[in-house]
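[Discussion] Sanity-checking designs against the backbone

I'm trying to build intuition for which residues belong where. Below is a structure token string of 104 positions. I'd appreciate it if someone posts a full sequence so I can compare it with mine line by line.
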């Protein structure tokens, strides 16, 4: 099984999990490095990133959606919905509410 992983052939997910679980002798050995500080310890000292403009976000969303869209009609309908002023106002209010709640 290890040879298979080493030489790049496919292995089942259970084989990979079994290999990973048996390679570590203790729970601590499964981590690269342990830390006495909690993960989010410095979160409040990090710089806040600015919220991108909604129009820019919608444009990037459409650019990402176009190649994976199931049909041209669905994609065009999505563009129409996102171009609608009411939709933009609704999205903007939801995003700004999310940010003001301290979740963003």
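Best answer:
Here's mine. Compare freely.
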């Amino acid at each position: 099984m290890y040879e298979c992983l080493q030489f790049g052939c496919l292995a089942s997910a259970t084989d990979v999990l079994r290999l990973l679980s048996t390679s570590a002798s203790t729970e601590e050995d499964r981590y690269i490095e342990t830390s006495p500080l909690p993960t989010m310890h410095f979160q409040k000292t990090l710089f806040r990133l600015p919220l991108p403009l909604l129009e820019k976000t919608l444009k990037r969303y459409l650019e990402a959606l176009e190649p994976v869209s199931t049909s041209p009609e669905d994609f065009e309908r999505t563009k129409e919905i996102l171009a609608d002023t009411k939709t933009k106002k609704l999205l903007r209010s939801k995003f700004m509410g999310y940010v003001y709640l301290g979740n963003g």
